[in-house]
Amino acid sequence: MSTTTNQSQQSSAAQPSGTEPVLLLVLGIVFVLVLGATFYLCLVHPSLTGPIGAVGGVASALVAAFAVAFALRRR
Fold first, then answer.
1. Rounded (5°) CA angle 25-70-11
2. This model's pTM is above 0.85
3. CA 27, CA 71: separation in Å to the nearest integer?
4. Which pLDDT tens digit goes with each residue over 47-67?
5. What angle do CA 75, 71, 20 make, to 5 degrees?
6. What does DSSP assign to residue 12?
7. Taking a C-beta distance cutoff of 8 angstroms, is the pair 43, 54 a contact?
8. What is the residue-wise DSSP string for 15-67?
9. Helix 49-74 and helix 19-44: axis angle, to 10°?
10. pLDDT tops 60 at residue 74
11. Residue 2 gets which letter from DSSP?
């Protein structure tokens, strides 16, 4: 019985998860859409360039923190 359980655990652990490529694709699409919307707002409403830059600076720091946390979680 333990041999069967061991084999089933090994076979399930050996199969890669299919959600990571989908997650990366969705994150890439969202990233491109957000950049496009930001570029559009900066072109159409030049007065919003300062606030959008401030929000972008804070957002980049948050993204870096989440990336580090995600990388450490994967180890």
1. 75
2. no
3. 16
4. 988 998 898 889 888 888 888
5. 90
6. H
7. no
8. SPPSHHHHHHHHHHHHHHHHHHHHHHHHHH-GGGHHHHHHHHHHHHHHHHHHH
9. 170
10. yes
11. H
